[in-house]
Design brief:
Length: 609
């Protein structure tokens, strides 16, 4: 192994590779084990860093460590701003405004009191760190929302609050620090106030100008398609750096505002940029968490006393709930949603990064307990991540605020065949939605009592009205092959390409009509086309859900139903899996098979199970 200057040190390239492997590996393992990814990343960083001593960011990466964290946080917040389209607010708008304008100042006050009387810090350290604690962390909220599959409104509340309050928390810390600086150095109060106001104004102007500049350049084709993402990255860094030159940490506000401007500009290439940014953000979040966890100093933690535990309890069980309940009082939000938001406040990357920075600066000013801010921040992040990571999903389920208990299926196309499949899935307790832009095509599904959506599944209206988090699988099965391909291609990144299916296209086997693998969805129902599937229905084929037992196995079912077309299987937990190409089908007792039967086999009666 190549080493750096210090004995046992990793060279920077190896160190960065290790960070990537630990971060992405933790996310993959969390996906496999269905655990909160943040928890595993935290553990991986601590084990590789202070426990085993393999990796020390300050030693192995050196002077690049702090700038890497700053730039990563800036890009993370910009990507968060890109998700804040005003159309997504809808009925959550009032709650978001209150959480920002009422919740942020109140949260600052209560957090300061928790630090002063819980952790026993000085008023100076408490005021600065209390401002930072406004943030709830988009880096933590985003993966938690993905795994918990919350209903749309509480998810929007938590997401908007996390992203908007992140730069506000950093700026609150700047304000408190400026006050401490004035008191300690006897500078003019007016000069410090003018510096703060100027910095905020410049941050807003730079953020808005950067956003509108990108929109103008992209809409008028001033930048070629292949250079749009690189140009965007450079613009983000330029706006962030320029704003920070005027007022430290104001760059967070500037890039967040820049992202919001771009998100609401209806750019034709917005989706491609957003998806690329999401992928980059996953890498950055993983890396930052590993870096910060590996940088943990057990010696610094040893300075903490039992009062640190009191502080964490006060923040999670009193400061956060009181802040949210006060901010959302007398709103139209149901009490269950208020309770969920009140007891969900995980902290993340920005808190640790900014807390460490201001802790060092307070120590330089002579505030001795400023050294406790970093360890307290880490303890709070670790506790909140573990608590909320393991409790959010069951708590939301208890309150009835998950999008769906069982992952559902969206069938695009209101045909005779999709209606029959939807009825079979509904009888098997699988949530199913039939959508079609033609109202007449949905008549049969509505008469059957199925849930329907009249409109284009790719429309903004669908995004607003359909609880997409409640569905896991999509089948594009309209009579228009080109539209099916468009639907499968567009929804693939959202649901995962492995979860988006498409019925066979007419003439798909010929070289003239075949499409590259990057377009369309996975094969569904074998090689059957729209016309073939509906012809089976006209010929009296029926859908059947059959349970397997130890006495009635897959071999028994296949022997009795040799012509049956197996479409899907439902596992013991009630989750559905479609059959495509070489997919493995579980044959364990308790599994249910979803199939189509010809009339002669259907007339033989129910299966033995």
């Amino acid at each position: 192994m190549a080493t750096g200057g210090a004995e046992g040190a990793l060279d920077p390239v190896t160190a960065i590779a290790l960070v990537g492997a630990l971060g992405v590996g933790s996310q993959w393992l969390a996906w496999k084990l269905r655990m909160p990814a943040i928890v595993l990343m935290l553990v991986a960083g601590i084990v590789a860093g202070p426990v085993l001593g393999i990796f020390d960011p300050a030693r192995d990466i050196g002077p690049l460590y702090a700038p890497m964290i700053s730039i990563a946080v800036a890009i993370i917040l910009f990507e968060g701003g890109l998700t804040l389209n005003f159309h997504t607010l809808r009925d959550a708008a009032e709650g978001v405004k209150r959480l920002v304008f009422i919740g942020a100042p109140l949260g600052w006050l209560l957090s300061t009191l928790a630090l002063r009387y819980g952790a026993g810090t000085s008023w100076e350290s408490a005021a600065v760190f209390g401002g930072i604690m406004i943030v709830t962390g988009p880096t933590v909220i985003a993966p938690l929302l993905r795994s918990a599959r919350l209903a749309r409104r509480p998810a929007a509340l938590l997401q908007w609050e996390a992203i908007l309050n992140d730069p506000i928390g950093a700026l609150a810390a700047v304000l408190a620090f400026e006050v401490v600086l004035v008191l300690r150095t006897a500078e003019q109060v007016g000069e410090a106030a003018w510096s703060l106001i100027l910095g905020l104004v410049v941050a807003c102007v730079l953020g808005a100008a950067g956003g509108y500049g990108i929109v103008w350049a992209f809409k008028r084709a001033k930048v070629p398609e292949f250079m749009k993402v690189p140009a965007l990255f450079v613009a983000i860094l330029a706006v962030f750096a320029a704003s920070n030159l005027v007022l430290h940490e104001s760059g967070l506000l500037a890039v967040t505002l820049m992202g919001i401007v771009i998100a609401n500009a209806d750019l034709p290439s917005f989706e491609e940029m957003r998806r690329f940014k999401e992928h980059a953000t996953i890498l950055l979040v993983s890396g930052v968490f590993i870096l910060l966890a590996a940088s943990l100093d057990f010696a610094a933690l040893s300075q903490l006393t039992w009062r640190a535990g009191i502080f964490v309890v006060l923040v999670l069980s009193i400061a956060r709930p009181v802040t949210v309940f006060a901010a959302l009082a007398w709103t139209k939000l149901p009490w269950k949603e208020q309770v969920l938001v009140a007891f969900t406040g995980p902290r993340g990357v920005v808190l640790i990064a900014v807390a460490g920075l201001f802790g060092e600066r307070l120590v330089e000013l002579g505030v001795e307990d400023g050294a406790l801010i970093g360890p307290l921040a880490f303890i709070l992040v670790a506790a909140s991540v573990v608590v909320h990571g393991f409790t959010l999903k069951p708590f939301a389920r208890f309150l009835g605020l998950v999008a769906s208990e069982t992952p559902g299926v969206i069938l695009v196309g209101g045909s005779y065949w999709t209606t029959g499949l939807a009825q079979a899935l509904k009888k098997a307790d699988i949530p199913v939605l039939v959508t079609d832009p033609n109202r007449g095509h949905l008549r049969r599904a509505r008469e059957a009592g199925l849930e329907t959506f009249f409109g284009d599944i790719l429309s903004e209206g669908a995004e607003m009205r359909i609880e997409l988090n409640g569905y896991k699988l999509v089948v594009a099965a309209t009579d228009n092959d080109a539209y099916n391909t468009l639907v499968a291609t567009d929804l693939g990144p959202h649901f995962g390409r492995e979860n988006v299916y498409q019925i066979a296209r007419e003439k798909a086997g010929t070289a003239r009509h075949s499409l590259p693998a990057t377009l369309g969805g996975r094969k569904f129902a074998g090689e059957a086309t729209y016309n073939e599937l509906n012809r089976l229905m006209w010929n009296d084929w029926t859908f059947r859900v059959t349970g397997l037992t130890e006495e009635y196995t897959m071999e028994d079912w296949r022997a009795k139903r040799p012509e049956a077309r197996l479409l899907a299987w439902i596992d013991e937990g009630g989750e559905i899996h479609f059959v495509s190409e070489d997919d493995e089908v579980s044959t364990a007792p308790g599994v249910r098979l979803v199939s189509m039967l010809p009339p002669e086999e259907a007339e033989r009666g129910q299966d033995a199970a």
